[in-house]
Amino acid sequence: MSQRDTANPWLETVKTLGLSVVLALGIRHFVAEARYIPSQSMQPTLQVNDRLLVEKLSYRFGRPERGDIIVFSPPESLQFEQAFIKRVIGLPGETVAVRNGTVFINGQAIQEPYLKAEPDYTYGPVEIPKRRYLVLGDNRNNSRDSHYWGFVPRKNIIGHAFVRFWPPDRLGQIADPEYSAVPERRTVPQQR
């Protein structure tokens, strides 16, 4: 008879459960986690109570790109504990402005077909500092985002929302939009 055959079944169960918990926490911390949408700030792309998978590996080895929907810890100045979800619009070193319902990056208007409505506010022009990102909700007029509280530090980014798994009728990948090339010059149109 082997020693494994005589092992205490309760001890084996506790070991298995312990290993399962450690493995689950490791996956959640380093690889991916589930999140839900609590507000209307990302409509129409994401709806209230949508459930998403947020992957964390790509930003350990790369940088967020324009159009990525990210989950992040809010800047410390907000004194808010719950993570936010918004779309990356401006990248480090770029100059961003919002005028007449349009976002300008380095002086060029970008097309945003995913918006619920054009923004009804004016913002900038501002240059985004190193290792900071400008993030905005797709429901621009109903979103507390970078145009209210500033840039998101790179260290605050948790991951990239890439799959919706609930509700079943909206199951699938969350596509990142294509943007035309944005010029590198740092000028924006003057306010009219």
Name the descriptors.
alpha+beta; elongated; 192 residues; 29% strand; Umud Fragment, subunit A; 12 strands
Blueprint (SSEs and pairs):
Elements: H1 3-6, H2 9-30, E1 32-36, E2 51-55, H3 58-61, E3 69-72, E4 84-90, E5 95-99, E6 102-105, E7 108-109, E8 123-127, E9 132-136, H4 146-149, E10 152-153, E11 157-166, E12 172-173
Antiparallel strand pairs: 1-2, 2-11, 3-4, 3-11, 4-9, 5-6, 5-8, 6-7, 9-10, 11-12
Provide structural commentary:
This protein has about 190 residues and is an alpha+beta fold. It has two domains: about 1-30; about 35-175, Umud Fragment, subunit A (Ribbon). Helices cover about 20% and strands about 30% of the residues. The protein contains four helices and twelve strands; from the N terminus they run H-H-E-E-H-E-E-E-E-E-E-E-H-E-E-E. Strands 1, 2, 3, 4, 9, 10, 11 and 12 form an eight-stranded antiparallel beta sheet that branches. A four-stranded antiparallel beta sheet has the order 7-6-5-8, with no helix packed on it. A hairpin with a 2-residue loop joins strand 6 (about 100-105) and strand 7 (about 110). The longest helix has 22 residues, at about 10-30. The model is unreliable at about 185-190 (pLDDT under 50).
